[in-house]
Amino acid sequence: MIRVLIVDDDKLARKGLISIVPWEDCGMEIVGEAANGEKALEFLQSHEVDLAVVDIAMPIMTGLQFIEKSQQCYPGMHYVVLSFHEDFENVQSALRLGSLDYISKMRLDQQDCVKVFKRAAQIIAGLKQEKEEAEKTETVQRETSGTWRETEKKWLRFFWLFSEEAFEEVANETELENPPVKQLEHLLVRIVDIAGKEYACSEAPEIPEIRNIMSAIQWITAFKEILSDNIQKSNDYLNANLCMFHAVCFIREHLSENISIHLAAQHVGLSRSYFASNFKKIVGLTFNHFLRRERVKRAKILIEHGRANHTNVAQLVGYEDEKYFAHLFFETVGVTPAEYYQRVKKNLS
């Protein structure tokens, strides 16, 4: 029910209006009445009102003054004004202030009043629904925006440049969150900007008109290849980001050897401590974690392509201790190298 307050200095007019209108049929109920604008404002302090029926010509505080003041404190409230014919200029002012309609006190007819209040009820219901839908949309956008900011940060940290797993993870998150096209375009611009500043990349494919998530991810994939090629050709070892990329390439080329963090740091001309702290910050994993993951990944590839079995794969990826490697493999893959070998063999047969 729409809660109605009648505001009129004429008590008979208030009672007459209350009595002639079938309020329940209009979807409304009278919650109070007031003899002037000041008393109406006092009433509003302790009562919820959806619609105020306001006489324009009142002592102490006119109807227009009441509407202006109440709008400041109760912006969601609506108004229907009561007037005499000679008040029509004031009626126009009330309508400009947002009043839904007006009723002539010279023709306080039940049929006319019912039409006015039913029309007002429809307008209020429609506005309420629009507000609820807007609030729902705002909530969804706020929640999406919050989660998208986290995914956007992952893109802008560039961990995906060093790892296919990291790239697939953030790409999948982006698909699930389905951000607006404008946010995707903004992301691509920022990726190019960061690549230029932190990875000395002066080449980037032109950012096309982004129509959906897949077109954005395809662009990033193409840009990733260009960026990787540029870094591999670079000899700038003063840039820590480029150094870590070269270190990652060095690690992958020497997985079968007894590689250490000291050798990787030496390869790019950095101290061990500086290398270790920057590796985690730029690549997203510690050196040892990254090395273990790359060796397990290489082991899986060797087994899948028939170049190794569970008995010799450990040595082919740089581990002398077969049991230790089996433990690492199980932690990462969920099965031992022997079980993985049997699974691959079964799938091939």
Structure report:
The chain has 3 domains: 2-132, Rossmann fold (3-Layer(aba) Sandwich); 158-234, no CATH class; 289-348, Orthogonal Bundle (Arc Repressor Mutant, subunit A), CATH 1.10.10. It is an alpha/beta fold and 349 residues long. 28% of the residues are buried. The mean pLDDT is 90. It is built from 15 helices and 5 strands. Helix 9 packs across helix 11 (272-283) and helix 12 packs parallel to helix 15. The longest helix has 48 residues, at 110-157. It is elongated and about 100 Å long. It has helices at residues 11-20, 37-44, 63-73, 88-96, 110-157, 164-177, 181-198, 213-233, 240-253, 261-267, 272-283, 287-304, 313-316, 322-333, 337-348; strands at residues 2-7, 28-34, 51-55, 78-83, 101-104. A 5-stranded parallel β-sheet has the order 2-1-3-4-5, with helices on both faces. The protein is 62% helix and 8% strand. The two termini are 72 Å apart.
